[in-house]
Amino acid sequence: MTSVTKANFANKSEFEQLLADNKLVVADYTATWCGPCRVVAPLIDKLASEYSDRATVVKIDIDENPEAAKKHGIRSIPAVLVFKDGEVAESFFGSQPYETYSNAVETQLKL
Known about the structure:
The chain is α/β, with parallel strands linked by helices. The chain has helices spanning 12-21, 35-50, 66-71, 98-110, and strands at residues 8-9, 24-30, 56-61, 79-84, 87-93.
């Protein structure tokens, strides 16, 4: 059986460190009570698995880390932000198809 990499949850300090240490970070802002977030969650896990060697993919629970959501202007979830060199390069709100997320990562990897 092959192991599957899943996106781990990160708190504010872990996330800030990831942004400082990694060239490409994908953050899924989510909450346990959010129905559309549950639809996006397996897509984010797939992204983490597929790009584990080229990008860092994390989930941020907005209930546990409201300041992280506020800092990046998150007003609705699910929200997926793609950070390149610590800056927001792309952002997606609401449930999107997997290809939307993977295409965004591919685009940023090529830049």
